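Researcher: Next sequence.
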Amino acid sequence: MDVFKTPGAFSWSELVTPDPARAAEFYGQLFGWNVKAPDEAMGGYRVVQLADASVAGIMAMPKDAPPMPPHWGCYVTVADTDQTVQRCIALGGKALMPAMDIPGVGRMAVLQDPQGAVLSVIAYAAM
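Model: Next structure:
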């Protein structure tokens, strides 16, 4: 199964932290991950690889974000991000971050279920 193409599959994990370099060192040593150098074109985003597979990302806390602890988030692949946002709202959830395009990656949004759990969804661009 190709999780990047399978709607409903968990496909990506991402750490948001105030110190991405320190986190990259810690997780690299803990799990044997190879963390690529920060991509300045993507705001210093670091891609985590295990063998030849990209499995996660590490990023700095957004400057305009409200105070929050460092945290891991996960993404579920969807066929259509905008339709998924609309369906989430119809089912009583919320869109915490509306659908937005990530050039060369896809279209994503951050959703919250009626109980308060937060999850990101993404429709990947053709790879």
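Model: The CA atoms of residues 12 and 75 lie 5 Å apart. The mean pLDDT is 94.
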